[in-house]
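User: Please fill in residues for this 279-position structure.
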């Protein structure tokens, strides 16, 4: 398969084989092969959620904290549906391949992702080796800000009418003051997001990097586009500071600086092809 990319698959496998530590960076495209939507553009968002097309509400407009104050059932309709979807979605086999490659390295692995879906944890990656720069839908915070607290959403169940994308009460509430809760996710125009959990993850990541400053590092980036460039910018910084090779897997935007590897193939297929060459 993919005869035009055989040489790049071989190069990618060689770099991964020789590296002493593995950095995994992932955007929304990583979950597509698991059946998750990537919300690329209004059309992509509306294909995943037809009721919003009828309302002429875009992803950027829907992913805004204003709805939790203006119309909580509408807000939790969107985030509750996503919470339910992510909980029942099985991560594709590319996650396992990355986990196994990283676990076999003397310096191990670390994950940096803009995804809020918790798929890396579900795939068996160690929680202390993941940084979720935009937060996690599996954690909540108080909308009233009664305290700077973040707690797991494990016990919450949100029922959603998928014909209207509205949640049915009761909605998640703060265990401390009883006010409405919201996901601990960084939304658009979001000044109330509590970053403490993500900042603690970043501290662990910086410590991990410091301990591996003399090791050879390879960066495998999956499904990270330029529309929200958090992950791509992170990958570029890593490659610049650690003289690491970047393996960029992206069906639409695989471009890389000279000397790096860009694969215009899906995450699962690319990782499987590389895996064949790793043995």
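Assistant: Residues filled in for all 279 positions:
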């Amino acid at each position: 398969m993919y005869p035009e990319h055989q040489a790049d698959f071989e190069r990618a496998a060689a770099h991964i084989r020789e590296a002493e530590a593995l950095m995994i960076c992932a955007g929304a495209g990583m979950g597509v092969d698991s059946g998750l939507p990537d919300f690329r553009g209004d059309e992509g968002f509306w294909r995943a959620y037809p009721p919003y097309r009828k309302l002429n509400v875009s992803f950027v407009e829907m992913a805004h904290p204003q709805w939790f104050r203006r119309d909580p059932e509408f807000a939790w309709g969107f985030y509750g549906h996503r919470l339910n979807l992510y909980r029942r979605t099985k991560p594709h086999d590319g996650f396992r391949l990355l986990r196994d490659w990283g676990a076999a390295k003397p310096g191990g692995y670390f994950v940096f992702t803009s995804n809020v879906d918790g798929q890396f944890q579900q795939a068996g990656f160690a929680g202390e080796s993941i940084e979720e720069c935009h937060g996690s839908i599996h954690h909540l915070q108080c909308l009233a800000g009664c305290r700077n607290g973040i707690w797991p959403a494990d016990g919450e169940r949100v029922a959603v009418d998928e014909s209207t994308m509205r949640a049915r009460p009761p909605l998640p509430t703060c265990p401390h003051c009883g006010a409405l809760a919201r996901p601990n996710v960084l939304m658009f125009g979001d000044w109330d997001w509590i970053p403490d959990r993500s900042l603690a993850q970043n501290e662990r990541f910086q410590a991990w990097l410091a301990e591996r400053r003399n090791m050879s590092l390879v960066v495998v980036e999956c499904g990270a586009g330029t529309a929200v460039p958090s992950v791509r910018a992170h990958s570029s910084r890593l490659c610049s500071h650690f003289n690491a090779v970047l393996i960029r897997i992206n069906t639409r935007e695989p471009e890389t600086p000279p000397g790096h590897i860009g694969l215009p193939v899906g995450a699962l297929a690319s990782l499987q092809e590389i895996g064949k060459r790793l043995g």
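For context: The chain is about 40% helix and 20% strand.
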